[in-house]
Every structure is written in structure tokens, then in C-alpha cells.
């Protein structure tokens, strides 16, 4: 099929409003479309290609694994799965790992673990899961029920029972948390899809305290914030908390589909053989990509670099805000998860950036632009981005 007919007569269900370009190749911070046009990609496949596109180390290890073993099921021990679990546990405050294939599945696993722990280990009636307004936790029935956004619920009633949404960063709302009904709180430390909203550190501390007092699991959804995105390997490190459960996906496999749910020893008791599973979860290819990704981040000492680049990006954006106060209202975010609040609809700016400057950026709600460069981006790339972005603002 020719390019235009492919884009006009797609056999795909219309679950996404896709932009009219076909991406056929990627390397580092750049992608190319079918016509050969090069784009600076500051979306990283939505915080997924954290090492840039087709990173050498991960590529080589995947090649080796493709030659060796693709799949064998979880009825047997898989060395790369054990290795990835071990690495994640060494690099975090958690003790046990469960692997799946996506972010939604990681949150499903967390929700199931919390409910089963309350039911089987604590033997209580508490099954409510509390999440927050403007949160995003996925698209399966349980995780869309967990998501605190009407537009994600629309048309899918009845939602799953037992999900409640509290206002984010609201101290008084914490009074509503009771261990009698609630078994877990699920929290994004920086709301990604909901507008790049960082949690207030004092509030997170208060939330942790309340959860401990009430015997409620504190579960952090680090599917977007994890794997170096916010300037530490995991965002919770910056908040001085130790959650009971953490979910990961996006950045963990450098683009290879993988999800993970990590838990403290005690919380992990919620699952026993037969209580949860996944055919593909922790598959040799996926966990090889995960191990190689973490090794590459540690070997290249990428976290401090990403933090520095995040500060650099924020500073140049603040300068741009001074030049264009009529277009840019606020810069927010953490590390390389950066939001720009715009006066105009964010989607118009995203479209102009792509069409006129060959620059790929994202929205996070109607008036927030989300910028997610790979962790190994450079100040040269950031300068190129800001120059192009300035031209877009100038032409508004
Ligand atoms: C992307 C995302 C999810 C869902 O992940 P999928 O892999 O699309 O299922 C869940 N939570 C957060 C915070 C996310 O950013």
C-alpha cells in the first residue's frame, strides 16, 4: 500500500488519534519518517526509550537472546528474570518482584496484591483502593476504575467497585483514609498524563504516616516516573519514603514491552502459587532488555546526567517564558519529566512543532506540553530543541 492509502484506510481500530506521519527508524534522540524526514524526538515513546532509540548495549544483548531462547513460560526458572528481579531489589527498597507486560498489568497486579493481602493475610474486609483526582493508572477495567479522570471512564460503566478518588496534594483529604475500608493507596509521585503535577513532599510524608497508622499499603505508580526519568532511579527516593509496593513499565525495557510490580517482603505475602500469573510476564527477551537497560543506566552513570539535563532544560525554558510570557505560563515537573503550561491549546503547539520544526513533543491535558527527552540527551540537543520551540512560539 502507498503511504497515503495506508494512513487513510487503516485496518486499525481507532483507539488513538494518530498524527499523520509514519515513523520507520530511530537512533538516539532522533526518529525518521517514511519520507526520510528527521525529527528530534523529545517524547521518548512516552517516557519509554529512556536510553534513546535502539541503544547499542541493549541491542547487542537482545540479539544474543534472540539467538538463544525466546520463550519457555513461567513453569520453569528463567535466568534473566531472576537477574532482573535481583537487580531491581538491590537498586530499591523492595524485596520481591513480579513481571508482566505493561503498565496497566503492573497496576492490576498491585491492586490484586493489596486486596488479597487484606483478605487472606490480614483477614479484614478492607478492599477499597484510594487514588487521586487527575491520576492515570491504565486502560484495563481495574486500572481505568483506579484512574481519577472522567474522560477515561466515559462509556465503560459499571466501573469496578471499591475505587475512591481524593484530591491530590490535599492534607485535609487524608483524614478520610481509614484502614477499616481501605487496603491501599495508589499514587503517582508526579502525575504524568494528568498534567505533569509533582506531589508535595510534605503531603507525601503525611500520606505515608497516615497509611502506616491505618495499616494501608502505600503503592507508588512509577510507570512513568521510574527508571531515571525524574532525576533519581525511582521518584520515591526524592520523597524520603519507603512504599510497600511500586509499579514500573515504560522505561524498564528501553521499548521492549515489560511491566513489573515490586513489593516489600510483608506485602508480597499477599500472593501464593496460583493467585496471579502471566504467560508472557518476565519472558527471556523482555527481562534481558530490562537487565541490559538497568546495566546501561548504571554503567554510564546516567542518573546524575539526567538530573543535570533536567535542570538545564528547565532553566532554558524559564528564559523562554520570560521572552514569551503571553504563551508560556509556567514550567513544572521533575528531572526530565517536564511540563510547560501554555496559554494556547497545547495540541496546536505540538502540531506546529512537528509540522514546521520537525520536533516531537507531547501534551498532558489541554494546556500542558510534556517534554520527555531520553536520559542521555545533551545540552546541544536541548539547545536545538529550545531554538526550534522558540520559533514555534514566535509564529503563534
Ligand atoms: C502509561 C502509564 C500507565 C499505563 O501503562 P500501559 O503500559 O500503557 O498499560 C499507568 N500508569 C502511569 C503513571 C502511566 O504513565
Automatic annotation (TrEMBL):
Classification via Gene3D superfamilies? Aspartate Aminotransferase, domain 1 (3.90.1150.10), Type I PLP-dependent aspartate aminotransferase-like (Major domain) (3.40.640.10)
- Residues with the modification N6-(pyridoxal phosphate)lysine, per the entry, are 250
* Cofactor(s) needed by this chain: pyridoxal 5'-phosphate
**InterPro entries from the UniProt entry:** AcOrn/SuccOrn_fam, Aminotrans_3, Aminotrans_3_PPA_site, Class-III_PLP-dep_AT, PyrdxlP-dep_Trfase, PyrdxlP-dep_Trfase_major, PyrdxlP-dep_Trfase_small
Q: Which reaction does it catalyse?
A: N(2)-acetyl-L-ornithine + 2-oxoglutarate = N-acetyl-L-glutamate 5-semialdehyde + L-glutamate
- Give UniProt keywords alphabetically: Amino-acid biosynthesis, Aminotransferase, Arginine biosynthesis, Cytoplasm, Pyridoxal phosphate, Transferase
Name residues in a coiled coil.
none
What does the entry list as the binding residues for N(2)-acetyl-L-ornithine?
Answer: 139, 278
Localized where? Cytoplasm
Metabolic or biological pathway: Amino-acid biosynthesis; L-arginine biosynthesis; N(2)-acetyl-L-ornithine from L-glutamate: step 4/4
Stated EC number for the protein is 2.6.1.11
Q: Which GO terms describe its molecular function?
A: identical protein binding; N2-acetyl-L-ornithine:2-oxoglutarate 5-aminotransferase activity; pyridoxal phosphate binding
Q: Which residues bind pyridoxal 5'-phosphate?
A: 103-104, 136, 221-224, 279
Q: Which family does it belong to?
A: Belongs to the class-III pyridoxal-phosphate-dependent aminotransferase family. ArgD subfamily.
Complex formation: Homodimer.
Q: Which HAMAP family match?
A: ArgD_aminotrans_3
**Name assigned to this protein:** Acetylornithine aminotransferase
Organism equals Pullulanibacillus camelliae
